[in-house]
Design goal:
By secondary structure, the chain is mainly alpha-helical. The chain has 2 domains: about 10-100, no CATH class; about 125-215, no CATH class. About 65% of the residues lie in helices and about 0% in strands. It has 14 helices and no strands. Helix 2 packs across helix 3 and helix 2 packs parallel to helix 5 (about 75-80). The relative contact order is 0.11.
């Protein structure tokens, strides 16, 4: 994107709140300096400008399809922290990363109302991560951890819902920063199916807590 065009863009109040949280977290981790906020805003506006070029125009009553972006971009923010707030490195990485298939699964805004998806899929408002990864998580959970699967079934709350939350937020607020970096690196180097294995591993780790809560 051309810098002049990007400067005409503006971030929504939701994105501004996300920027504040990201910068606060980055400073806590000693990864960012005082003036990192402007750099992150520039990265997010570049991403928005870039992704807009690959979006369909959809007429729909669904709120998620009327929005210009799919919520806050947690993946781009994670990369920004991994690059220690270096704007140029972050944008260069995202541009190259967008060519890989795994970007569809790790970087959720990448496929928001995208021209790369069938029209029927776009109009449904359901992200491919939900009906691909989340579906396989449900299947594996039933086979590997039947007690946890039953606990979710009894609660009336599907495991795929919480997994989509984890994946959308790149496990922020759920795992430590080192583990988040390992998760992103593992999916890039070993393939997007490791996103599924990661979720199953977390459920295995939480199994006793989940079963205890079910009893209570």
């Amino acid at each position: 994107a051309v810098d002049a065009d990007v400067k005409n863009e503006s971030l929504s109040s939701l994105q501004q709140l996300g920027v504040e949280m990201t910068v606060r977290y980055g400073k806590y981790l000693n990864l960012l300096t005082e003036h990192a906020e402007n750099g992150l805003c520039f990265v997010l506006m570049n991403c928005e400008k870039f992704l807009k070029q690959q979006q369909r125009t959809v007429v729909s009553s669904l709120c998620c399809l009327r929005e210009r972006c799919a919520g806050y971009d947690w993946f781009a923010s994670s990369v920004f922290l991994m690059m220690s707030g270096d704007t140029e490195k972050t944008l260069m990485f995202l541009q190259r990363f967008s060519r890989l298939l795994v970007s569809a699964f790790l970087w959720l805004p990448r496929l928001h109302v995208s021209v790369h998806l069938p029209v029927t899929t776009v109009e449904s408002g359901i992200h491919p991560v939900y009906f691909c990864c989340a579906h396989h998580i449900e299947m594996l959970l039933k086979a590997e951890l039947p007690l946890v699967f039953s606990a979710f079934h009894m609660s009336g709350f599907t495991s795929s819902q919480i997994c989509l939350q984890w994946i959308t937020q790149c496990f922020w607020n759920y795992m430590d920063w080192n583990e988040i970096c390992h998760y992103i690196a593992m999916c890039i180097f070993l393939g997007p199916d490791y996103q599924i294995y990661m979720c199953i591993s977390v459920f295995r780790h939480l199994q006793q807590d989940i079963l205890k809560h079910t009893e209570d």
